[in-house]
Amino acid sequence: MSGEPALVIGVISDTHGLLRPEATEAMQGAQLIVHAGDVGDPAILKELEKLAPVKAVRGNIDVEKWARKIPEELEFEAGGRRFVVLHDAKQYRSREAVDCVISGHSHVPLSQEKNVVLFFNPGSAGPRRFRLPVSVGRIVLRDGALEPELITLAVD
Question: Is the dihedral of CA 42, 147, 142, 27 positive or negative?
């Protein structure tokens, strides 16, 4: 028997100025969207905000004036779980009571638990780099559990 309804968090990163329709479609139904940096264009955050509230961090390419108001790191709570978001996971410094670390930067999708902390990188949703997939992610919080999902987008 499930208790509270599930909370769906859409996770996107490394758009680099390109918000693909497939990425927007994958964010449908999310109650919260997290952008893990390298946004590239403030219009992307505005488009995502049409779908759900957005929490974003600044990535290494986000150097324009508009990006200065975006934090390099943020912490928030959702569904009783504590999240840390930063662009480059290598910059993460361990702290107490964190359930999930969301990052981007590497363009490599990752969903891995280390010492009861979920490390989640949705990969890159923007221009394809090398032979890496174009992808986004979703974390569903259901009955206190984190259910991560990586989603490879069908793009040319």
Answer: positive
Instruction: Give the integer Cα–Cα distance in Å for 10 and 72.
Output: 19
* pTM assigned to the model: 0.95
**pLDDT tens sequence across 12-26:** 999 999 999 999 999
- Could you identify the residue written with the tokens 């069908």? 154
Task: Please say whether the beta carbons of 149 and 135 come within 8 A.
Answer: no
Strands (E), 37-105: 54-56, 73-78, 81-86, 100-102
Class of domain 7-152: alpha beta
Segment holding 26, helix H or strand E? helix 21-27
Distance between CA 79 and CA 17 in Å, rounded? 30
